[in-house]
Amino acid sequence: MGSPQIEFLVNLPNYITMARIFSVPILIWILSSHYFLDAHGQRELVASAVFILASITDGLDGYLARRRGQVTTLGMLLDPLADKLMIAAAFITLVQIAPELVAAWMAVIIIGREFLVSGLRSIAAQEGFTIQASELGKFKMVVQIVAVVAVILAHRWEYWPIGRFVFPVHLIAQMAIWFMVALSLISALDYFVAFWSKIDRQVVKRRKRRVFVLNRRRKDNDVPAT
Fold first, then answer.
1. For 124-143, what is each residue's pLDDT tens digit?
2. Buried b (16+ CB within 10 A) or exposed e, 17-36
């Protein structure tokens, strides 16, 4: 029978997170490999499915960990790592296969925003407070899925007929990517403002505490000996 500690570390939420990490090289291989069957756009459809499933697990693992009481140090380490790897892999690969839609500077802004938020959260944790995910950040995740999938599909189709409707895939991809860039900048600013306001309060509290301690020491020193 396995160690209780090991069994706790390899729980279902952590398995889901690790599956998301393992999907990163699979996504890159599907999009960039010439050995994948691609007669009727299978490559783009499979890559889109992999990215959508991996993105869905982003919130699922955290939800299950909290609901089942299985929050572990390993999960706290792997979850943000999996997110950053997935986003970086997706957009760097899109720069390679669809440079006309995703310029390198766009990928730098989108990926840079992720590392900026991670850095701010790390500093906040050291200072003893947390920065909660904002509604803007959650909306950014939805736009991110739409943008990546639209660009992947636009790599094969300019228009995609579904029944009587014809979706301008290429135009949707262009609009989604530009919107994603703008949203990344706004979201980064939103997180920075939230961080700065909290860190400023922490500094004020420390100054007040320091003044209180100094005044207390002065009063103690002024007490005459009996």
1. 767 666 666 667 777 888 88
2. bbebbebbeebbebbeeeee
